[in-house]
Amino acid sequence: MIGMMMMVKKVGSAHDYVEALYKSILFFEGQRSGKLPPTQRMTWRKDSGLRDGFEVGVDLVGGYYDAGDNVKFNFPMAFSMTMLAWSVLEFGWSMGPDKAHARDAIRWGTDYFLKATSHPGIVYAQVGDPHADHYCWQRPEDMDTPRTPYAVSSQLPGSEVSAEIAAALAASSLVFKSVDPAYSQTLLDRAKSVFEFADKYRGSYNITLGPWVCPFYCDFSGYEDELLWAAAWLFKATKSPSYLQYVVQNAHALSHSPYAANSAEFGWDVKNAGINVLLSKFLMKRGSSSLFLPDADWFVCTILPESPTKSVEYSAGGLMFKPGGSNMQHATTLSYLLLVYAKYLDNSNRTVQCGNNMFVPPQRLIQVARSQVDYILGSNPLNMSYMVGYGNKFPQKIHHRGSTLPSLDQHPGKLGCVDGTPYFESYSPNPNVLTGAIVGGPDIQDQYNDSRFHFTHSEPTTYINAPFVGVLAYFKSHPNPS
């Protein structure tokens, strides 16, 4: 155990966190759907999805493609916006000129979510038939698969996707509060109404939209955590005690036991650890010892490699692993929570106790987060950066349609559904560099096969990058290990 602890601590400061931060935000421009603005910096991407929603009389143009496909899955998209907003709120002071680009990335998502929630009693959860889309290897600029809009309603509820959108809108309202008060208020007002809808008409979109959202983004953990997550963000945005009361009264959904299975989980599906960390700041200031603080401490104890209650695995090279595909989502989201909680602990002069005799200072949480950041950027057995376009060695054949296929500048003619297959099957590097994209990552033996065939390892997603923006912003201002 001591060997593992020392291995994870052994990190350098050779990485350019300033460059990595810039590129991690730039990545979102490569995922944009809709009419691209004149300020678009990733110029090989062009306009796409310009008639989304028109078949049902609703403007659903905009938003983001979640990964390497051309579907707009609003559940993970909303989580990505929540995490981008949280990154700016906690570490925006360190972003410098990149902060404006981060706000632009958030607004690209929130403008779309205002459209998706513009009709009372209806929340649009997805645009595009995923089965047809995944059959084709086609540029987003060319796609001719059905752009079917899928919605939840009072008769066909979807509390998880609605509540996550409410959380994204509430968190983002804080980002724009000082720079665009009117827009901030619009976001907050919509967050309140969407949360009320999600709570009043409870039910999972697995049931109402199952054939289209599953198996892609099924909600495996239930919708209760999203309701509490949204209420926690609304409490932070409004300071209204009613939202905190809602979380406390409904916390049984997360279980009162700090040993509950989901207390250490956080991502687009499970919000438990995020709720506990988010609320911990307020509770520490109040001197409260409510159940959220023990659960936040428990989360830390499941992550630290030397902890007697560790529940994650680490590769020999030091990368944390949890079950499921696209493992880098765990490394980035959990590292983000470690940094935020370390900040809260330090401000409150608290430590974390793991087991009977192990007391963990905030600095240790920062060390573990740094080990994950540096691994992703190239401090690993393969000396490979898992961020596209960063470093001298990075994935060249990522699982991403727009990156794999020649751009409109290079191939103005349309590429049909199966016209892209030869490009997918090619062993040549992708012609378009999706700068800043973080791929799913290596296996637990620290091996990475640079192949677009292995999508769980080679596909980037918005929810891998979003928390990493905040992590990189922190280390931009704290580049030297201590």
TrEMBL record:
Give the Enzyme Commission number.
3.2.1.4
The active site lies at: 399, 450, 459
Q: Which GO terms describe its biological process?
A: cellulose catabolic process
Q: Which UniProt keywords apply?
A: Carbohydrate metabolism, Cellulose degradation, Glycosidase, Hydrolase, Polysaccharide degradation
InterPro entries under this entry?
6-hairpin_glycosidase_sf, 6hp_glycosidase-like_sf, Glyco_hydro_9, Glyco_hydro_9_Asp/Glu_AS, Glyco_hydro_9_His_AS
**Domain Glycoside hydrolase family, first and last residues per copy:** 17-472
Q: Does the keyword Oxidoreductase apply?
A: no
Q: SUPFAM superfamilies under this entry?
A: Six-hairpin glycosidases
User: Which reactions are catalysed by this chain?
Assistant: Endohydrolysis of (1->4)-beta-D-glucosidic linkages in cellulose, lichenin and cereal beta-D-glucans
Q: Name one GO molecular function term.
A: cellulase activity
Q: Which family does it belong to?
A: Belongs to the glycosyl hydrolase 9 (cellulase E) family.
Protein's name according to its UniProt entry = Endoglucanase
> Upper taxonomic classification of the species?
Eukaryota, Viridiplantae, Streptophyta, Embryophyta, Tracheophyta
Q: Which gene encodes it?
A: LOC116205377
